Amino acid sequence: MTIDPLITERCIEALLFAAAEPLSDVDLAKRLPEGADVASAIEGLRARYEGRGIELACVAGRWRFQTAADLSFLMTEEREEPRRLSKAAQETLAIIAYHQPVTRAEIEAVRGVQASRGTLDVLLELGLVRMRGRRRTPGRPVTLGTTDAFLEHYGLAALSDLPGLTEMKAAGLLEMNLPPGFTVPDPLGLRPGEDEDPLEDGDDAPEFAQDFLGELEGR
């Protein structure tokens, strides 16, 4: 059955407008008549809203309508964030984002200081970081990675959109004269499963998370 592309666009437009959170292609397809071309309709909507006050954006592989970035100055309401990340938490989160999957010991090796329970506790509690597996090394340490909430918080469609060397220099986050051979880690350089196993039964339970954090406190 062939569905009129304009009808599909209108349906998707209505679904995204009413949705409380971003919707994936699969979410949209489930609510549309069989045979609807979701991908073409999405492209049609993106083109239609290009340059408008509202734009169609992809965040963590899902779609949502949002205010155009260049009109942010119109949003005069100021809200205080419920919890600001400390410098240690920001550094730890950046290391996890670029080096994932990464263990606590590897985080400490990059930062040069011990990882505190409080720092990881905050990142796990906010849902920016998750325990994703176990390293295939002696002791089978837990590996950490970022979540979709991390992508949504920073407005990234995927990990590949994390700033690279050029972007960091342009933003003033790195010096222009860097040591020879300096590179920014590729967050997609290590594919999941190459040196880690999935979490075992019970490893993703809240009490396991507390045990994991308790190991930091007891060191």
What does this structure look like?
The protein has 219 residues and is α+β, with helices and mostly antiparallel strands. The protein folds into two domains: 5-74, Arc Repressor Mutant, subunit A (Orthogonal Bundle), CATH 1.10.10; 87-217, Arc Repressor Mutant, subunit A (Orthogonal Bundle). The protein has helices at 5-18, 25-31, 38-49, 87-99, 104-111, 117-125, 148-153, 165-170, 206-217, and strands spanning 54-59, 62-67, 102-103, 129-135, 142-146, 196-198. The strands form two sheets. The protein has a four-stranded antiparallel sheet with strand order 3-5-4-6. It has a two-stranded antiparallel sheet with strand order 1-2. Strand 4 and strand 5 (142-146) form a beta hairpin. It is globular and about 60 Å long. The mean pLDDT is 82.
What's the arrangement of secondary structure elements?
Layout: H1 5-18, H2 25-31, H3 38-49, E1 54-59, E2 62-67, H4 87-99, E3 102-103, H5 104-111, H6 117-125, E4 129-135, E5 142-146, H7 148-153, H8 165-170, E6 196-198, H9 206-217
Antiparallel strand pairs: 1-2, 3-5, 4-5, 4-6
Helix pairs in contact: 1-3, 4-6, 6-9
Write out the CATH superfamily name of the largest domain: Winged helix-like DNA-binding domain superfamily/Winged helix DNA-binding domain
Strand tally: 6
Largest sheet: 4 strands, antiparallel
Approximate strand percentage: 5-15%
Strand pairing plus helix content: what structural class? alpha+beta
User: End-to-end span in angstroms?
Assistant: 63 Å
* CATH architecture descriptor of the largest domain: Orthogonal Bundle
The strand line-up of the biggest sheet is: 3-5-4-6
Rg from Cα: 21 Å
Indicate the low-confidence ranges by residue numbers: none
| CATH fold-level name of the largest domain | Arc Repressor Mutant, subunit A
Helix residue percentage: 25-40%
What is the ordering of alpha helices and beta strands? HHHEEHEHHEEHHEH
**Average pLDDT taken over every residue:** 82
List the total number of helices.
Answer: 9
Sum up the overall morphology in one term.
globular
| CATH class category of the largest domain | Mainly Alpha
Number of domains: 2
